[in-house]
Specification:
mainly alpha; 2 helices; 72% helix; rod-shaped
Length: 54
């Protein structure tokens, strides 16, 4: 049984040259790494202790 999402993903990505595929993989990895870096920075800021003024 094939899911609809599998069909769509197969149709969306045409057979490309190996160089183009490698470039796409690098771009996706870079984007994931940058997103993880941004998320960790946001987490660090949100979890940072705040000074309470009494």
């Amino acid at each position: 049984m094939t899911l609809l999402s599998q069909d769509l993903s197969r149709e969306r990505i045409p057979a490309t040259a190996p160089d183009e595929l490698a470039a796409r993989v690098r771009a996706l990895r870079r984007a994931r790494r940058e997103a993880q870096t941004r998320a960790s920075r946001v987490r660090r800021v949100l979890l940072a202790p705040t000074s309470s003024r009494d």
